[in-house]
Amino acid sequence: xxFDLPDRDTLYAAxxxxxxxxxGQAFVCVSSTGVFCRLTCPARKPKLENCxxxxxxxxxxxxxxxxxxxxxxxQAAAQADPAxxxxxxxxxxxxxxxxxxxxxxxLGYDLSTVRRxxxxxxxxxxxxMARQRRMREGFETLASGGKVITAQHEASFESPSAFRAxxxxxxxxxxxxxxxxxxxxxxxxxxxxGDMIAVGSRSHLHLLEFLDRKGLPxxxxxxxxxxxxxxxIGGSSPCEQAAHELAAYFAARSGVFETPLAPGGSAFTRQxxxxxxxxxxxxxxxxxxxxxxxxxxxxxRAVARANGANQIALMIPCHRVIGADGSLTxxxxxxxxxxxxxxxxxxxxx
Length: 350
Known about the structure:
Order of helices and strands: HEEEHEHHHHHHEEEHEHHEHHEH
Helix content: 40-55%
Distance between the termini: 13 Å
Number of helices: 14
Strand order of the largest sheet: 3-1-2-4
Low-confidence stretches: none
Radius of gyration: 21 Å
């Protein structure tokens, strides 16, 4: 089910405050202009009596309203910002460039504006994103059996120490700690919402996380400690299957994931995760509803903790859990990403 909209006054207050907790969860149709907007739209705010709120874009269109040209509700929120779109295209065209603030200024953009926009929509700056893109080149060189020095050059880092430091910040270990082979193998998977790291054995997927998740280095360390051989770099059947299924998912072709998982966790945690996997794509649940469904109605906080401990993103869909009032609540991958995932899944459902 889609969540029940909060009352009209609550949504109108969110519209006035440009509250991003409801972004993508509710849209406002303005009778005086004939357009529908995101609640974060920067346009002049309409009077309450001219506002009708719907949970989906389809309902706004069916009611006869057209999309706003300021907030572009038919696009992902980030893509509605012209500066973000232009810089992302520039990054695609020159992925190996060592981007600096000077490059951004030469393109005619204000540094503070760009920094705020990228942090708001992606949880990282444009320069962080560019550095991550270069790290992908180095990781893939190591995965193919290349030496660390070769990976450093492929990633366009001037010194070995800078490459090692950047690698450690991202993955929580030095490049030499992830060698080719091993019982568990790490694979880098690019996606439209940011690159992911997958770790799999010969038979199961053990981890799937967005690279900018703060808990990723700690999760990798725990996996390394649980495996005598540590984690290596390279492909595995579960990781390859995950990459194919993710490509179909982000293209809105399929919401089905059949990659065999090895999620770990306590018996209670696995019970919560099993319930999450039962939420169909395009639908959401609240923490309290999950607690009721597993027969533990007073365990809402424990359900939230189990939700946050999930280390197999998307396939165990913790992003489908929202606040009881329909607001987007905490998500390790970032609220901007949670909102976009819900949008993708609503497209899948329709």
